[in-house]
Design goal:
The protein has 464 residues and is an alpha/beta fold. 37% of the residues lie in helices and 15% in strands. The strands form two sheets. A ten-stranded mixed sheet has the order 8-17-16-15-14-13-12-9-10-11, with helices on both faces. The protein has a seven-stranded parallel sheet with strand order 3-2-1-4-5-6-7, with helices on both faces.
């Protein structure tokens, strides 16, 4: 606790060096003790510190009780919550949330809920200790109806998955880690990092980098297929074929004449399909059902997105073909958003979002595939692998077509390697897809990122 409180104080001083008035909300457990230790250090650094203690001092855990006694001896003002959740000490330049952290799985209520409301109403930056109070550490969902919205969170000992997926990124803000010199336990998930870059040999030709076929683009949605194809090409695939499901649309993209149109490509001989990495479903509509049996039966590497996933969810015969792929040596990557995942699992989207890691793992187990569950903190899962959580990206990606770009880019990267797994490709693609959004001008101020611009930015700045 001494190390945790000292680390919290150091981070508070580093993040807000000019803050003069600091309000600490301390809860009834050891998280509150961490806040009390930090308050003592900040008081010693010359800051005006006020602590609001939401606990019976006589019932504090031993370490927290010692921290309270030390803070009082150092002269730190300790108060209790006032009427209607008012904050003793007036306006603060920094607020520290040391209410609950990891120590509870019960919904905050009463004075704790009032304190969370007061923290969220503060105009000052908010620094949470270990975990924003009211947030589930495993799922990133609120435990009850309220949780602290922090500017930054200092995670203690290990990172918490809930800070990086679901609503967690909105609640946790920028996440920092203090291991406190303690060896971490075995991980339950990975936080995805930047992929490595393998330079291309000089003595190569386009045939060395694989073929991709995009099957999608029903009437009124052909743009989705062309976006996926452009992304696959930009990702480095040697050749990209586009097979539209709208027979009336021209098989030609004047903006990218490198792309090759092929009518009803999915009717190619099994050997041709088997040598191609296929991305199926982007803008596919109901028409995609016709193409799926051949692709599920023969494609060596298959990315299923959008309407292909909806078709599988509605057809038990297609589900059987999907499950059988792994036993035949076929590799599959599913790229659902929460509603598509819900349809595949036969549950509601709210149930998927309630535990995104569990949902991704269930999909991987059910269908024998790698899964990239999209959304804030995309989750990648596969049998025999710890789930991976992607920490890049922002709401600039919440625009039409960015999911098609993700699927196409994954296929383009996958086509270049006979040994890469769907899990590896999905993890790397999600990281880079989000990284471009993080670099996008104005994203922090609410700017959106158009899918076509996303492809070009990914191509210009590709790091893997």
């Amino acid at each position: 606790m001494e190390r945790a409180g000292a680390a919290l104080a150091r981070l508070a001083l580093a993040l807000t060096p000019h803050a003069k008035r600091i309000q600490v909300w301390a809860g009834p457990g050891n998280n509150g003790g961490d806040g009390l230790v930090a308050a003592r250090h900040l008081h010693g650094a010359g800051k005006t510190v006020n602590v609001t203690l939401l606990a019976d001092p006589a019932r504090l855990p031993a370490d927290a009780a010692r921290a309270l006694a030390d803070a009082r001896q150092a002269g730190v003002p300790i108060g209790a919550i006032g009427p209607a959740g008012t904050v003793p000490g007036g306006v603060a330049d920094l607020v520290i949330d040391a209410l609950l952290g990891l120590g509870t799985r019960r919904a905050p209520e009463g004075t704790l809920a009032a304190a969370i409301a007061a923290i969220n109403a503060a105009a000052a930056p908010v620094l949470a200790v270990d975990l924003p109070s009211g947030l589930n550490p495993d799922t990133g969902m609120r435990i009850g109806s309220c949780a602290v919205h922090a500017t930054a969170t200092l995670s203690l000992l290990t990172l918490k998955p809930g800070c990086f997926t679901g609503a967690g990124r909105d609640h946790a803000g920028a996440v920092w880690l203090a291991t406190l010199g303690v060896r971490a336990e075995e991980p339950t998930a990975w936080l995805a990092g930047a992929p490595t870059n393998a330079a291309r040999r000089h003595a190569t030709h386009k045939g060395d980098f694989g073929d991709v076929a995009v099957v999608g683009g029903a009437a009124g949605m052909v743009g989705a297929a062309w976006l996926a194809a452009r992304a696959a090409l930009a990702a480095g695939a040697g050749r990209v074929y586009v097979s539209l499901l709208d027979p009336a649309s021209p098989l030609y993209d004047p903006g990218r004449p490198e792309l090759m149109g092929r009518a009803r490509w999915w009717r190619s001989p099994a050997g041709v399909i088997a040598q191609t990495t296929v991305v199926c479903g982007c803008g596919g509509g109901d028409a995609v059902r016709e193409a799926l049996p051949a692709l599920l039966s023969h494609a060596r590497q298959l990315v299923l997105d959008a309407d292909a996933l909806n078709a599988v969810a509605a057809d038990t015969a297609l589900q059987s073909l999907l499950r059988a792929r792994a036993s035949r040596g076929g590799a599959t990557l599913l790229t659902p958003h929460p509603l598509e995942a819900a349809r595949l699992l036969g549950v509601s989207a709210a149930e998927v979002q309630a535990d995104r890691i569990k949902a991704a793992q269930a999909l991987a187990s059910t269908f024998g595939a790698a899964v990239l569950l999209k959304g804030s903190g995309s989750v990648v899962a596969a049998a025999g692998q710890l789930p991976s959580i992607n920490g890049t990206g922002n709401a600039a990606l919440a625009s039409a077509g960015t999911g098609d770009v993700l699927a196409g880019w994954a296929a383009g990267r996958w086509a270049q390697s006979a040994t890469a797994t769907g899990y590896d490709v999905a993890t790397a693609t999600a990281w880079w897809h989000g990284r471009i959004a993080d670099r996008w001008p104005g994203a922090a101020q609410g700017a959106t990122l158009r899918a076509g611009d996303l492809i070009e930015a990914m191509a210009r700045q590709a790091a893997f």
